[in-house]
Amino acid sequence: MAADSRSRKSGQPWSASALSGFSPANSNTRISASRLPLRADAAAPSLRAPGNLGLNSERQRAAMVERLRRQGIADERVLRAMQAVLRHSFVDEALASRAYDDAALPIGFAQTISQPWVVAHMIQTVLRDRMPRKILEIGAGCGYQAAVLAHCAPEVHSIERIQGLYDLARNNFQKLKIASIKLHYGDGMRGLPDAAPFDAIVIAAAGLEIPAGLRLQLAVGGRLIAPEGGEEQRLVLIERTGAQDWTRIELEPVRFVPLKAGTQT
User: Fold this and answer.
1) What is the per-residue pLDDT for 42?
2) pTM
3) CA pair distance 85, 21, nearest whole angstrom
4) 171-195, pLDDT tens digit by residue?
5) 56-106 confidence digits (pLDDT tens)
6) What does the pLDDT read at residue 163?
7) With bands split at pLDDT 50, 70 and 90, how would you rate the model's confidence at 14?
8) What kind of fold does domain 50-255 have according to CATH?
């Protein structure tokens, strides 16, 4: 496996090193981890709410954050967000005891909540040396990743194409009193052209290729991270370097649910 396989139209991309040794168990599960040097910035406001695990959830989240540090997550903004957001509140109560394991968990509709490392790694990578003001997420799911993103930028838009998951995410945001996320029901492959440009775009499902329309919704200097591929997938990082110029870097192998067009009721 190439540690830093890349192609680019213009500009000079940074390098990415990969660690091997993780087999995918289900969708949104990593195969290998990449370590990128990051800058720590100021903390974001908390998005806490009472959970159903009590003090034990605090200890479990703290243990999760320490595990993320060992796995190469170094951006303090991301680590603070992962500590603050109550992951167990975004999964079914029957799975709450596993909420802080390094595993993807089912959320219904043949979808999953990504494992903590995947969430932290994608956000860390797209934010490297950046302080974005506006982020777009494609694939809200249960809303967990959007809640983490809300610690990293003052404006977060999230799109969900499945009506049941849109309702789930909306209910989770209301339950946890998270008012800073703008949740949209619609086709994520179209993005939100009326709200563009975005400083960062995070796509939580894998298409055979990244839609050109989403690349065009990046601000110049903005970054997009997404899994790409069919049976074999890799994370791809794209940076817009000019009006018609982008750099592209292929990162580690991953496995995500497929990116689909349209909506599902």
Assistant:
1) 32
2) 0.81
3) 28
4) 999 999 999 999 999 999 999 999 9
5) 789 999 999 999 999 999 999 999 999 999 999 999 999 999 999 999 999
6) 98
7) very low
8) Rossmann fold (3.40.50)
Closest CA to 234 of 199, 215, 209: 209
114 is catalytic: yes
Instruction: Put residue 164 in one of left, alpha, beta given phi > 0 → left and psi -120 to 50 → alpha.
Output: alpha
- Domain segments of the chain as ranges: 50-255
Q: Calculate the average pLDDT of the chain.
A: 84
**Calpha distance 107→76 (Å, rounded):** 28
**Cβ proximity of 49 and 89 under 8 Å:** yes
- Which one is catalytic: 27, 34, 57, 114? 114
